[in-house]
């Protein structure tokens, strides 16, 4: 396993222009855990403006207020390049009028590499890879903590969590996603300070939620949140439901979602899909499925569903378009389950997503498997399948003499592709991140 070419090239370009630069954070951690990094962070002693001068305006854009950084565009991907920072002091923090000066609202005080190590959250995330010497700079024993998978704060946990409550979630992600263990002082600090997560901005929390749902470990991450008394503040409805039959179904759905991310190359990357899954049992409980399947009281049911989505995701700043997508997905399910109006239903723009939600429901607990088998494939899937059928036919035609006129087969209505075949839940799939 090795780092991708693009981040290495970006670091080289900065170094060739006389700056210090490293690959840092999650990518170095993941590499040491023998997992291919998905995202790269680069750090340098160049200021954001200097980074822009090195790469030019077309390849670099400066963003952020609380945390100013440069985005570098390379080979169709975007890379974050941050300047070495030091922890801001009391005056530099410039908190809100109501703040006691504990929370960091502005983190733009630049510093040295040593300062930068100190301001990072955990030892496992504070390793710097030098692309020229092929060495890792480790000033805080982070390599050992990665080897033994221990979450260790840089600084005093309670203070660090008060400065930025999202760090608690980041610790729980190490536990859920990478099977780290928390030292007791960190666990205690999380239990004590968990409520502070409510003070983080809803937009940032929404971003964090999306990142969790984009890993192949959403279930174990939420589990770690629930076990440490954090979920009730981060996503209160999910926490309340956790032990109920609805919560059991949510967990089964999240497990399917994690498995699909891990194993299915063509799995939908639409963000509203996992969001629908985590709220689904609750949303289905507030609408009258029978009415919706018969197109009775549609508006009232739609409103109830939208309100329930708002309530479920109250702590996040969910964009309206996503809320409506989720509502429309949920409102299609009763008709699909009853096999009503399928010609109309299949033309609904969210049908491919509703079909996917139905598939995961069927995989999670066998829900309406018979009805699912009758559902038309969404257009894009059937087109893909038609193409595959054509390729098979063309292959066989090449070997047939004399040539016969080509007969276009109808796409098989219910034959599932390999990618679609439900992977039955297995007990060990929670540990699948270990096997990458
Ligand atoms: P992922 O695999 O999710 O990208 P990551 O650790 O790389 O994990 P990023 O959000 O990409 O997470 O952050 C990059 C690095 O920035 C982290 O590894 C850590 O060193 C530092 N960092 C991120 N968020 C914080 C924070 N809230 N407080 C201190 N340091 C942070
Ligand atoms: Mg990262």
Structure, explained:
The chain is an alpha+beta fold and about 425 residues long. It contains 22 helices and 9 strands. It has helices spanning about 5-15, 25-30, 50-55, 90-95, 115-120, 140-145, 155-165, 165-180, 185-195, 200-215, 220-225, 230-235, 235-240, 245-265, 270-285, 290-295, 300-310, 320-340, 340-345, 350-365, 370-375, 380-400, and strands at about 20-25, 40-45, 60-65, 70-75, 75-85, 130, 135, 150, 180. The radius of gyration is 25 Å and the shape is globular. It binds adenosine-5'-triphosphate (ATP) and magnesium ion. Magnesium ion binds near residues 25, 26, 39 and 41.
Entry keywords:
disordered C terminus, Beta Polymerase, domain 2, binds adenosine-5'-triphosphate, 436 residues, binds magnesium ion, alpha+beta, single chain
Structure in a nutshell:
This protein is an alpha+beta fold. The chain has helices at residues 5-16, 26-32, 48-55, 90-93, 113-119, 142-147, 157-163, 166-178, 184-193, 202-213, 218-227, 231-234, 236-241, 245-263, 272-286, 289-293, 298-312, 320-338, 342-345, 351-365, 369-374, 379-398; strands at residues 21-24, 41-44, 60-63, 69-74, 77-83, 128-130, 135-137, 150-151, 181-182. Helix 15 (272-286) packs across helix 18.
List the helices and strands and how they pair.
Elements: H1 5-16, E1 21-24, H2 26-32, E2 41-44, H3 48-55, E3 60-63, E4 69-74, E5 77-83, H4 90-93, H5 113-119, E6 128-130, E7 135-137, H6 142-147, E8 150-151, H7 157-163, H8 166-178, E9 181-182, H9 184-193, H10 202-213, H11 218-227, H12 231-234, H13 236-241, H14 245-263, H15 272-286, H16 289-293, H17 298-312, H18 320-338, H19 342-345, H20 351-365, H21 369-374, H22 379-398
Parallel strand pairs: 2-5, 8-9
Antiparallel strand pairs: 1-2, 1-6, 3-4, 4-5, 6-7
Bound molecules: adenosine-5'-triphosphate and magnesium ion.
Residues 25-26, 39, 41 line the site of magnesium ion.
């Amino acid at each position: 396993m090795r780092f991708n070419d693009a981040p290495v090239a970006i670091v080289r370009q900065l170094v060739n222009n006389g700056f210090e630069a490293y690959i840092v954070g999650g990518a170095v951690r993941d590499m040491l855990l023998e997992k291919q990094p998905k995202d790269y962070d680069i750090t340098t002693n160049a200021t954001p403006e200097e980074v822009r001068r090195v790469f030019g305006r077309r390849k670099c854009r400066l963003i952020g207020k609380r945390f100013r950084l440069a985005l570098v565009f390379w080979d169709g991907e975007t890379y974050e390049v941050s300047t070495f920072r030091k922890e801001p002091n009391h005056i530099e923090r410039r908190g809100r009028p109501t703040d006691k000066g504990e929370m960091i609202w502005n983190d733009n005080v630049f510093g040295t590499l040593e300062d930068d190590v100190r301001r990072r959250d955990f030892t496992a995330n504070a390793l710097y890879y030098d692309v020229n010497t092929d060495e890792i700079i480790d000033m805080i024993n982070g390599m050992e903590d990665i080897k033994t998978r221990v979450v260790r704060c840089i600084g005093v946990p309670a203070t660090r969590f008060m400065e930025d409550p999202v760090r608690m979630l980041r610790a729980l992600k190490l536990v859920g996603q990478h099977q780290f263990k928390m030292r007791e002082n960190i666990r205690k600090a999380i239990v004590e300070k968990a409520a502070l997560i409510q003070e983080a901005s809803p937009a940032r929390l929404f971003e964090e939620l999306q990142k969790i749902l984009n890993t192949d470990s959403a279930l174990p991450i939420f589990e770690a949140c629930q076990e440490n008394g954090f979920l009730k503040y981060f996503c209160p409805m999910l926490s309340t439901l956790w032990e109920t039959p609805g919560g059991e179904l949510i967990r089964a759905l999240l497990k399917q979602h994690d498995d699909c991310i891990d194993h299915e190359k063509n799995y939908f990357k639409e963000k509203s899909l996992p969001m629908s899954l985590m709220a689904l049992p609750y949303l289905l409980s507030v609408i009258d499925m029978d009415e919706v399947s018969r197109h009775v009281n549609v508006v009232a049911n739609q409103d109830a569903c939208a309100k329930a989505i708002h309530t479920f995701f109250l702590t996040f700043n969910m964009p309206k378009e996503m809320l409506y997508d989720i509502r429309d997905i949920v409102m299609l399910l009763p008709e699909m389950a009853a096999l009503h109006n399928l010609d109309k239903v299949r033309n609904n723009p969210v049908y491919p997503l509703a079909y996917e939600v139905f598939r995961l429901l069927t995989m999670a607990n066998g829900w309406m498997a018979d009805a699912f088998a009758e559902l038309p494939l969404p257009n894009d899937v059937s087109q893909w399948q038609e193409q595959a059928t054509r390729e098979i036919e063309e292959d066989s035609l090449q070997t047939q003499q004399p040539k016969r006129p080509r007969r276009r087969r109808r796409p098989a209505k219910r034959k599932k592709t390999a990618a679609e075949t439900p992977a039955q839940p297995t007990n060990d799939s929670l540990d699948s991140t270990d096997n990458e």
